[in-house]
Amino acid sequence: MLKIKNLKAGIAGKEILKGFNLEVNAGEVHAIMGPNGTGKSTLGNVLSGKEGYEISDGSALLNGVELLELAPEERAQLGLFLAFQYPVEIPGVSNANFLKASINEIRKSKGQNPISAPEFLKLLREKMELVEMQKDFISRSVNVGFSGGEKKRNEILQMAMLNPQLSILDETDSGLDIDALRIVANGVNKLRTPDNAFIIITHYQRLLDYIVPDFVHVMYDGRIVKSGDKSLALELEEKGYDWIKEEVEAL
Amino acid sequence: MSEQNQILEDLSSSDYKYGFVTNIEQEFAPKGLSEDIIRFISSKKEEPEWMLEWRLKAYKEWQKMEEPQWANVHFPKIDFQDIIYYAAPKQKKELNSLDEVDPELLKTFEKLGISIEEQKRLSGVAMDIVVDSVSVKTTFQKTLKEKGIIFCSMSDAIKNHSELVKKYIGTVVPIKDNYFAALNSAVFSDGSFCYIPKGVKCPMELSTYFRINAAGSGQFERTLLIVDEGGYASYLEGCTAPQRDENQLHAAVVEIIAMDDAEIKYSTVQNWYPGDKDGKGGVYNFVTKRGMCKGKNSKISWTQVETGSAITWKYPSCILAGDNSIGEFYSVAVTNHFQQADTGTKMIHIGKNSKSRIVSKGISIGKSQNTYRGLVKVHKKAENARNFSQCDSLLMGNRCGAHTFPYIEVDNRSAKVEHEATTSKISEDILFYCQQRGIDSEQAVAMIVNGFCKEVMDNLPMEFAVEARKLLNISLEGSVG
């Protein structure tokens, strides 16, 4: 589904991703871990098309389509979803309106008709239950006055509504209490199908207690330096990242 | 420059779409202001003696006054002797039907998207159109007449309903009220007049369209609207002007009066030429609008959508004199390029249990400055007065400004006054967030702005809301790409 090859990208003349490679197949969950400042969030931003990054080399194909040449909204329309580390507040735009606009733009790009109001409301109610969102959520402005946990749950809700092919969760677990973490993880688990895939960027293995990954990758200095299964996450939890750094630097 | 920045830039540099000039023969007064000019205007309009006296009195007062400096707007000093105070499209004296209206003028209306015929047939909006200084045609006179409603140009009212005009003119906005009101009182050339008799609910929207056409001319219209006991009127006002390099002055006065149990809804869509991208030209819009809730249980509601003018200085206000009277002010003000707006309202509570509600939404784009200024005053005798104010500002880009100056004066302990304010910004991060959800930047901006203004837009009458929304999108939209 996703093939990232030798991706090199940076910001303001400083290279951050230094030849990043990753292949993700349908039905898989990949966790990307690693110390601060190794380029984990940059990966999410570059893949989703945030402005300000210079891409010097490499490619990122989603189902054979080169993402790096598309506008951010076109990537989204192809089924790429980024759950933001810091979701923004959009005053004056209700969650319902925002989600409807989003769904309809994606449908439009596929030549489909806009979603009908009853169909939309039914879907929204169903997905709100999934992330245990309060009823008044529908009419509240996007993320305005939301707690940290609510904002993250809203990201998962949006993901559930849009049903993307590939979702990147950028430190969705940071700042969450144990209840919110459980709700978020539960949401992701229920959305897992053989047809979609997830990349979960995280610092801690605690999220991986709830969302069990097929692969765990350790990122260091702009590259994946070690890959394994979920036991690697436990090992990191126990030993920290220093041994990885030493290993890499010894090479 | 990043793409989002580029889009913000493009959005904020779109051009004025109503900037055409109509080549109609005009009849001018010579430039400048003097007693003679006032006599000229008055005699042109065949006014009664009392009207001339009133004008001359206003002129004398105006000469003693100083131009106000307190507003948060900056512009070169106006040379009041360099303005044409009377410019009328030349035409036959009496018009019996629309066929007699200058075809060029009709074309103008079509360009503005208001075919009078269409308006007449489809929406049942009675319309008075003021080009430069003279009211061209008032439609639907007959239908209104059957209900006893008077809706005509101010000039006609002065001639045909002299007693009514004499009784009410200057009672809400006195001659000496302020510098521009005094100027208007001296030189006003036309405007609309409306009287709704006791117990009559006006069955259609009443509408006036203003357009400044002649170069170097000022427009000084005067509107007087009286709704008698138990009556109801909804009044719409639209404004445009052609694109010109020099600044044009617009100094209008609107007075509205609601008697016992009467209700007036006054809606404005103001789209005077705002000047070009570099801040050249544009209309100076210095307007005094005030409503008097004279009777008990009366209600006056102002709704305005302001997208035009180089400078706006305008505070539609309510004097809540009657017990249980209600005043409302709903405003959207958009400023772009170098536009400056200092607008808001005054709610003066005098009657017992009087209530007021203020909802102001300011949108600043480009290098513009947008100011909300409002006064809530509760008099000693106003038992149980209530006010709620909400002032929200939305900024696009980082070179514009939003300012809020709320003044609250309360002299009665039973009063409850609430004020809420927010400021938000359409940042690159917000645009990226929307894009990541499949929504392109231009649509994201429209969605955010429409959401931001919704509460105000919902207060506009249906046909007007469509126009206002279009106008709003034009002010935002632009030559993207």
Overview of this structure, please?
The complex is a heterodimer of chains A (251) and B (481). Chain A has 251 residues and is α/β, with parallel strands linked by helices. Chain A has one domain: 3-Layer(aba) Sandwich (Rossmann fold). Chain A contains nine helices and twelve strands. Chain A has helices at residues 40-48, 72-77, 95-109, 117-130, 148-162, 178-191, 206-210, 230-239, 242-250, and strands spanning 2-11, 14-24, 29-33, 53-62, 65-66, 80-83, 90-94, 141-142, 166-170, 197-201, 215-220, 223-228. In chain A, strand 4 (53-62) and strand 5 form a beta hairpin. The mean pLDDT of chain A is 93. Chain B has 481 residues and is α/β, with parallel strands linked by helices. Chain B contains twelve helices and 23 strands. In chain B, the strands form three sheets. In chain B, strands 5, 6, 8, 10, 11, 13, 15, 16, 18, 20 and 22 form an eleven-stranded mixed β-sheet that branches. Chain B has a ten-stranded mixed β-sheet with strand order 4-3-7-9-12-14-17-19-21-23. The A-B interface holds A 48-52, 71-73, 75-77, 81-82, 84, 87-94, 97-98, 101-102, 105-106, 109, 141, 158, 162 and B 2-4, 392, 394, 422, 424, 427-430, 432-440, 443, 447-448, 451-454.
Please sum up the structure shown.
The complex is a heterodimer of chains A (251) and B (481). Chain A has 251 residues and is an alpha/beta fold.
CATH topology of chain A: Rossmann fold
CATH superfamily of chain A: P-loop containing nucleotide triphosphate hydrolases
Distance between the termini of chain B: 14 Å
Strand content of chain A: 25-35%
Radius of gyration of chain A: 18 Å
**CATH architecture level-2 label of chain A:** 3-Layer(aba) Sandwich
Structurally, how many domains make up the residues of chain B? 1
Report the mean per-residue pLDDT of chain B as an integer. 82
Portion of residues in helices of chain A?
A: 25-40%
Could you give the count of β-strands of chain A?
A: 12
Largest interface: A-B, 32 and 27 residues
pLDDT < 50 runs, ≥5 residues of chain A: none
**What's the pLDDT, averaged over the residues of chain A?**
93
Which of globular, elongated, flat, extended, rod-shaped describes the shape of chain A?
globular
Order of helical and strand elements of chain A: EEEHEEHEEHHEHEHEHEEHH
- Overall structural class of chain A, as computed from helix and strand content, comes to alpha/beta
Q: How far apart are the first and last residues' alpha carbons of chain A, in Å?
A: 31 Å
Helix content of chain B: 25-40%
